[in-house]
Design a protein that fits this description.
By secondary structure, this protein is α/β, with parallel strands linked by helices. It has 10 helices and 10 strands. The strands form 2 sheets. It has a 6-stranded mixed β-sheet with strand order 6-7-8-3-9-10, with helices on both faces. It has a 4-stranded antiparallel β-sheet with strand order 2-1-4-5, with helices on one face.
Length: about 280
């Protein structure tokens, strides 16, 4: 078995609120004894309603927050060790909902070159990589453009290729994008995952973005309450509803048909699967 790229062991994080005198006013346990072992090259989706601890967990992978209890290893490096912070951030890059605060260079080309340059790659090779990366995400024609002129989806794509880490964590990256922009970002993520073996950890509210993941974790009140393949997870419609989560539209429809007595198997994920099931009934 390969060493996990992200390994959380009993990871617990408490936000502590203090009054002006510094006395503790309240404690929120945002992440509560989470265990996760993510293998290199996996495409992981994390689901959970607002306040379930997803963002707090994600920030640990990028060494933006440190465990109150338990440990998190990124590529074998303990993030709590100060000496590891830079290495951790090189291996695990984070894409935020609003990429504006991430895009710092003036040209798209420079932006994409910025990542590898920082980790000691010769200049000619950087520009070769920049061209290749921009082509890979369909952004080559924008190489001389100012990132400020790009749409939200285009910015996300640049932010993603600019990092080129072993592991990308995306915290609801498509929440502010239109369906077209969302599809573009998802295509880039799957390409990076398939072709370059980049581990993807995607936090999302869009169930359609979860279907193609290798594994899904569902969080509630700081805990991992469900774990499995998309098909296993979306077979548990009632539990998901109790956790205030949706299922993909076609999964819901298949579930309702089945509840009304139509003999259809659980965990339908695509239109084609539902069609196949219905055709068997003829
Ligand atoms: P999610 O990303 O799933 O919506 P969060 O990780 O943002 O969940 O929040 C988990 C819990 O921690 C919530 O109860 C939230 O109110 C609390 N929380 C988040 N950020 C802070 C903060 N900076 N200070 C205090 N409490 C916070
Ligand atoms: Mg969040």
């Amino acid at each position: 078995r390969i060493m996990g790229i992200v390994k959380a062991k009993d990871l617990t994080f408490e936000y502590i609120r203090r009054d002006e005198e510094g006395n503790v006013e309240g404690i929120t346990t945002a992440v509560d004894h989470v265990n996760m072992d993510i293998q290199p090259g996996e495409f992981i989706a994390i689901l959970g309603h607002n306040g379930s601890g997803k963002s707090t967990f994600a920030k640990h992978i990028n060494a933006l927050l440190f465990p109150t209890e338990g440990t998190i290893l990124v590529d074998g490096l303990d993030t709590s060790d100060e000496d590891n912070v830079m290495d951790v951030r090189q291996r695990a890059g984070m894409v935020f909902q609003n990429p504006d605060n991430q895009i710092i260079c003036t040209l798209v080309e420079e932006e994409v070159g910025f990542g590898p340059e920082n980790i000691g790659v010769p200049t000619e090779e950087i520009w070769e990589r920049v061209a290749a990366s921009l082509k890979a995400v369909g952004m080559y024609q924008y190489r001389k453009a100012s990132p400020n002129k790009l749409s939200g989806g285009q910015k996300q794509r640049v932010a993603i290729v600019a990092m080129k880490p072993k592991c990308i964590i995306l915290d609801e990256p498509t929440a502010m994008l239109d369906p077209h922009g969302r599809a573009d970002v998802m295509r880039v993520l799957h390409e990076l995952n398939r072709k370059e073996g980049v581990t993807v950890i995607l936090i999302t509210h869009y169930m359609e973005e979860v279907i193609d993941a290798d594994r899904v974790f569902v969080m509630d009140e700081g805990k991992v309450v469900m774990e499995g393949t998309p098909r296993q997870i979306f077979s548990r419609v009632e539990e998901l509803k109790q956790l205030r989560l949706d299922v993909p539209q076609v999964t819901e429809l298949a579930y309702e048909l089945s509840r009304s007595g139509v003999p259809i198997r659980s965990g339908i994920l695509t239109n084609q699967e539902l069609i196949d099931e219905l055709m068997k009934l003829k």
